[in-house]
Amino acid sequence: MRTPLCEAFGIEYPIFAFTPSEHVAAAVSKAGGLGVLGCVRFNETEELESVLSWLDDNTDGKPYGVDIVMPMKIPTEGTSVDLKAMIPQEHLTFVEQTLQKLGVPPLPEGEGREGVLGWLHSVARSHLDIALQHRPVLIANALGSPPKDVIDMCHEHGIQVAALAGAAKHALSHVANGVDIIVAQGYEAGGHTGEVASMVLTPDIVDAVGPDVPVLGAGGIGSGRQIAASLALGSQGVWMGSIWLGTQEYQHMGSNSEAWTTAFTRATSSDTVRTRVYTGKPARLLKTKWTEAWAEEGAPTPLPMPLQNLLVAEAHNRINAANDPDVISMPIGQIVGRMNEVRPVADVIADLVTEFEETVRRLDKVSG
Question: Residue 77 — pLDDT band, cuts 50, 70, 90?
Answer without folding.
Answer: very low
